Amino acid sequence: MKRCLCLCLYLRITSEFLDIWDVDLMKKREQGNTIAHHTAAYQSNYLIVRRGQEFQLEIAFDRPYQPNKDKFAVEFVIGSNPQYSKNTYVPVFPGQGPRGSWLGRVIQTSDNVVRMGVTPAANCIVGKYQMYVAVATPYGVRRTKPDKSRALYVIFNPWLAADAVFLDDAVERDECVTTETGIIYHGSHDDVAERHWNYGQFNYGVLDACLYILDRCEMPLVNRGDPIKVARRASAMLDSRDDDGVLVGNWSGDYTYGVAPTAWTGSTEILLTYASSKMPVCYAQCWVYAAVFNTFLRCLGIPSRVVTNYYSAHDNDGNLKSDIILDDNGRVDRSRTRDSIWNYHCWNECYMSRPDLPPGFGGWQVVDATPQETSDGLYRCGPASVRAIKHGEVCFPFDAAFVFAEVNSDVVFYSRGKDGSMEPVRVNRSHVGRMVLTKAPGGLTRRDVTDQYKFPEGSAEERTVLEKAEAYSCKREKAELPPGDVDLVLSYVQAGVGDDFELTLKFVNRSGARRTVEAYVSGSVVYYTGLVSSEFLFATPSVKMEPAGFAKESVSVEAERYMKALVEQSNLHFIVTGKVTETGQIISAMKLIRLHGPALTVKVSGRAKVSEEMMATVEFTNPLGTSLEEVYVRMEGAGLMLPKSKYFRLITGGASLIWSEFFTPQRAGTSRLIATLDCPALRQVHGQVTLTVEA
């Protein structure tokens, strides 16, 4: 009898209060959450939503929901020790007004099912939340059991004005958030080269890998809603030097124990390898750091783009000078010339508000993951306001002075006397920061954003900015050098790897008297960081000019002299200096020549339609007279093919390789297959093909 009474009492209690049967997060595309939140392209088993924007879910109870009688809450927790005070435990109460930072409302009820709308706070923590449903009873709270399938991701929302990463330009936003492939510029300012890259921010596992990066550096959860702190901390974690971050930098030319930086085709393999192995991935240089960082930022919803600065100064003492030391005859003294100017340097810009700065300094911010100098004890850089850099506000955080020097330093030539004294003899104020490029939204064209970093050379605005920077202890060369009357111009040269060519020197006499120049021509194989690998050419032409006349000298550059010393970027750097006999004037000119590599052809065959198999073929012919050994070819494409690679032990001179792979497009739209070929004797060989996939 007692057992029957207890059972009856239990049945009365359980029927009187709600019991939770099922929860549907409505993560299927046709249910609308992912389309409304611009997250349908993410390959994930979980719902992904953007903060500050309502998403819907359905809760099935054992009986119809009675608003005046039933009390329940949807709970969202993140981290191992969720707390209401730290916004890591967020209860959402429907129909009773906001009790927390997230809003909830009942949209409709149908039989026993309640459709509810939940709006995360526009500044909430970004990451992976676990969801529970809790029902209040006089006997305590009845809560759903832990279920991993009910997890969801909340990411930044550049479509929402209340979010700190809001970007109001729809075309720019589409490029900098949802576009999966990009172009990274390299080469030289007068011979721009392109490297296509698959960011792959929507690929399966990439979002988890990006969140793992924040976990690995033990970034407090309470800071993960602030894009300033996320970008700054991640700029340190993309490099392995002081925190076992994602990538190992290597500029040595020896990549035996990893993948050469020039061989990568995208970010997916790098991020997934790091997340699975828990070890830094080998190897990277600046464009790899920038490309993987771009994937990280776009994946989390922060608008970002890769930017290339041509002739980028590495200023480690804040003096806005890069020094080139000459002997008393005007010849470069390489043993004493230690400053370097990178032929180009890639960093990122991300878009966000800056409430920590005066009004007007939000928008694009420089962040740089390439380890150059420490900032607050770690190798990192930014975010630094681009507007602050342009206007010389180098005191603003973070690292604005360093970026300012990268685009504004002077190249100063010093003559070193026999007693060791140093005297400035020539200043080039326009060499550094010659051009700043990024990919234009849509299409495959580039955009020159130099005017966003600096005012025109020689303008009144530029002088004002430099004076302001000097007030913040950025020192420049102040020497007033007498104007010279002899100019030197080096010809434009376009040559391929293995070609002989001529470098033409044009000397122009603007005076009414005869002039004689004793010149020194130095040709070196250089890394793109400006460091010299080896000098392969040295010539000392003597030039005579009539009054108001000119003279030309040609220097022959033979492939057999530079090929054996060539490094991966295939860059030759020429410095011509000299002294005018009659006046003592020092003249100088510099020229970077990028040797063009052979073509890598990528073709596709078959109908470009979702879920229909196609074939991609890579073709390459060795143009050199020598064999290529240890050759790796890699290929991938966003929504088309995950990273694949093929090894060829030997490709003899003049021989060809053909590699074919089947693939099945997963998404409709325009995409690209990107391929690279890499071996110790020949790097920087890449190709791509664009295709439009039908639904």
Keywords:
single chain, 695 residues, alpha+beta, Immunoglobulin-like, Coagulation Factor XIII, Chain A, domain 2, 4 domains, six-stranded mixed beta sheet, six-stranded antiparallel beta sheet, 41 strands, 16% helix, 41% strand, elongated, disordered N terminus
Straight-line distance between termini: 67 Å
Strand percent estimate? 35-45%
Percent of residues in helices comes to: 10-25%
The total number of structural domains is 4
Class from helix and strand fractions = alpha+beta
Which CATH architecture of the largest domain is right? Alpha-Beta Complex
* CATH fold title of the largest domain: Coagulation Factor XIII, Chain A, domain 2
Oligomer: single chain
Describe what this molecule looks like in 3D:
Strand 33 and strand 34 form a beta hairpin. The chain is built from twelve helices and 41 strands. It is 16% helix and 41% strand. Strands 2, 4, 5, 8, 9 and 10 form a six-stranded mixed sheet that branches.
List the helices and strands and how they pair.
Elements: H1 2-16, E1 20-24, H2 33-36, E2 47-50, E3 55-61, E4 72-77, E5 89-92, E6 103-110, E7 113-119, E8 127-137, E9 140-143, E10 151-155, H3 170-178, E11 181-188, E12 191-198, H4 206-216, H5 227-237, E13 247-249, H6 268-277, E14 281-284, H7 286-300, E15 304-313, E16 321-326, E17 341-352, E18 363-368, E19 374-375, E20 378-379, E21 381-385, H8 386-390, H9 400-408, E22 410-416, E23 422-428, E24 435-439, E25 446-448, H10 450-453, H11 460-471, E26 486-490, E27 495-496, E28 501-509, E29 515-526, E30 532-539, E31 542-545, E32 550-557, H12 559-562, E33 571-580, E34 586-596, E35 601-605, E36 614-621, E37 628-637, E38 641-651, E39 656-663, E40 669-679, E41 682-693
Parallel strand pairs: 2-10, 13-14, 16-22, 27-34
Antiparallel strand pairs: 1-3, 3-7, 4-5, 4-8, 6-7, 8-9, 8-10, 11-12, 15-17, 15-24, 17-18, 18-21, 19-20, 22-23, 24-25, 26-28, 28-32, 29-30, 29-31, 29-33, 33-34, 35-36, 36-39, 37-38, 37-40, 40-41
Helix pairs in contact: 4-6
Signal peptide: 1-16
Pfam families: Transglut_C, Transglut_core, Transglut_N
Family: Belongs to the transglutaminase superfamily. Transglutaminase family.
